[in-house]
Amino acid sequence: MMRFILPLVLFLILAVFLFKGLGRDTREVPSPLIGKAAPAFSLPTLQEPAKQFSPKEMLGRVWLLNVWASWCEACKDEHPVLMQFSSEKVLPIVGVDYKDKREDGIDTLKKAGNPYDQVISDADGKVGFDYGVYGVPETYVIDKTGIIRFKQIGPVTPENLRDKLMPLIAELQAK
Amino acid sequence: MRYFLIGLFCLLPSLSFAAVAKDIADDPVLEARMIHLAEKVRCLVCQSEPVSTSHSEWSQDVRNIMREKMKEGATDQQILDMLVARFGKSVLYDPPVDNETAPLWGAPFVMLFLGGALLIYQLKKRRGKVVDATLTAQDEQRAAELLNEPSSKDHQA
């Protein structure tokens, strides 16, 4: 009897591991920036290049940093989700127009609507690099003390907004 | 005619003068050092390719940043540390041994130990099972007969 049970058990263990592996997105690399201070920077805003934005301005508030670009296809899927979320006025959303031409960024927001409280232009992608961006869109939740608490790689969907982002934001805002 | 055509085809490679996009530093020593370092870094967009050969925009950016940092005088280790701080240890093809990666590095040895233990256990178990067969005189005789049988059948076959 043991002769049959043991291989079966081993097979089941292996199957569980392989099945789990199938369901994982290997592109999603855990960010080492979670729990660390959001890297400091100063960048011009998209609409008014003379005006600068720095994460320091957001201290004391929980906020969302969303990295997007006009050339990014997945951002188009994410856009309506952000529009809806922004209308709920839960927290300020700062957009980073990553490696994009200024005109293209402005044009996209004009046509599709602007979900952001502020949009900054990271034309050469240096700030994106500091934030460990490698697949746009990416979204960071930053707490009142300027610590990165969560990073979403790929588009924000209504599901992960409801299941992950919202509970975390509520928890951070209550602090 | 055929040789003329073959000759023509031999000339074809000389027509391929496509240029590679300029993506190199002016200093060949620095470029070689950068490529050597970039071979150790995983392209996160393409996963199975090192940054040194990847054509993805992200890899190009990383190569440019490596060149810049090298020009500023950063050591290879400083550059790798900078990448790990931003993208995590999985950007390195050869991740360092630490608490987080210890299971990964230790697993082969654990497997080897378990396999060895299982093998020894099975061998010991088998030793108990194999009966030491002693042949009777009759058996010996029969064996000798079988072995010494004239091999006429072999010739037929």
Task: Supply the key terms.
heterodimer, A: 175 residues, alpha/beta, five-stranded mixed sheet, two-stranded antiparallel sheet, 5 helices, B: 157 residues, mainly alpha, 7 helices, 59% helix, 0% strand, flat
3D architecture notes:
Chain A is an alpha/beta fold and 175 residues long. In chain A, 40% of the residues lie in helices and 18% in strands. Chain A contains 5 helices and 7 strands; from the N terminus they run H-E-E-E-H-E-H-E-H-E-E-H. A 5-stranded mixed sheet of chain A has the order 5-4-3-6-7. A two-stranded antiparallel ribbon of chain A has the order 1-2. In chain A, helix 3 (102-112) links the parallel strand 4 and strand 5 (118-122). Chain B has 157 residues and is mainly alpha-helical. The longest helix of chain B is centred in the last third of the chain and has 28 residues, at 102-129. Chain B starts with a helix and ends with a helix. The model of chain B has no long low-confidence stretch (mean pLDDT 81). The A-B interface holds A 26-27, 29-33, 99, 125, 129-132, 134-135 and B 44-45, 47, 57-58, 61, 65, 84-91.
Q: Could you say which overall geometry of chain A the principal axes of the C-alpha atoms support?
A: elongated
Based on Cα principal axes, name the global outline of chain B. flat
Helix/strand order of chain B, N-terminal first: HHHHHHH
- The SS-based structural class of chain B is mainly alpha
Order of helices and strands of chain A: HEEEHEHEHEEH
Major sheet: arrangement of strands of chain A? 5-4-3-6-7
- The whole-angstrom Rg of chain B is 33 Å
Give the DSSP E fraction of chain A (strand runs of 2 or more residues).
15-25%
What is the overall number of helices of chain B? 7
Total DSSP helices of chain A? 5
Most residues in contact, chain pair and counts: A-B, 15 and 15 residues
Low-confidence stretches of chain B: none
What structural class do helix, strand and pairing data of chain A support?
Answer: alpha/beta
